[in-house]
Amino acid sequence: MSPTVPPPRSSPDAVPGSADAALAQRYARELGWTTAGRAPLRLLTGAVFDVLELPAEAGRAVLRRGVRTGPVLLSGTRMGLLVAAGGADELPGLLDWLEWGPVALDLTAVGAGGSVTAPPLPGAPGDSPGAAVWLRPPEPRRAPESVLPALSGLGSSGGDAPDLVRLVDAAATECHRVRLSRPRSGARTRGGTDQPLAFS
Q1: Alpha-carbon radius of gyration of the chain
Q2: Cα dist. 181→58, 107, 195, 199, 200 in Å?
Q3: Which of 71, 85, 131, 174 is deepest in the core (most CB within 10 A)?
């Protein structure tokens, strides 16, 4: 017997007729994604997708590397890379396996029970400056498992899906580079100025 998954719902908190209510309905209708809240509307994680969050500077470097990703959002100084549901649970183990475990990285995951700010979908009126935006928007009516990074054999549809391990490794590398490029607080040189850590 296969488990029954409830259909997506638009946010019950959004005021009927508001821009949030219209956006929530579009997310449910076009993508099958569940939303909650209002001002700002939130996308619920854990059912269809999880999100890897990292500094926007590191995220831009990951995108420049040409690593295959799924949809990508930007919210203030943070970038969100959408990955297959369950990817958030895999992050700590992947970081350990890739030997990033003991390194302090500004790389987190939002999974089951979490949420992220919902950017306006393409064709919708924009929000205020600084609001979340899609850098690589999701494609309506496309099976999420074929575009979201996943572990092979663990929910991945196989050859066409981006590889979660490569994405996490690229994200960890760029988070580490961003961390190393920032001046260390408390470390003083003979001249009395902060000196950034060098790359190895």
Answers
A1: 19
A2: 11, 16, 10, 8, 12
A3: 174
Q: Phi-psi region for residue 164, left (φ > 0), alpha (ψ -120 to 50) or beta? A: alpha
Distance, in Å, from the CA atom of 107 to the CA atom of 168, rounded to the nearest integer, reads: 9
pLDDT one-digit tens code per residue, 6-28: 444 444 554 455 677 888 888 88
Give the DSSP H or E segment for 39.
none
Q: What is the distance between the alpha carbons of residues 84 and 151, in angstroms, rounded to a whole number? A: 9
Averaged pLDDT of the chain: 79
Which tokens belong to 166?
A: 């490569």
Whole-angstrom CA distances from 200 to 165, 170, 180 are 23, 17, 10
Question: What is the rounded distance in angstroms from the CA atom of residue 136 to the CA atom of residue 117?
Answer: 15
Q: What residue has token string 């997708």?
A: 49
Residue 103 CA to residue 156 CA, distance in Å, equals: 28
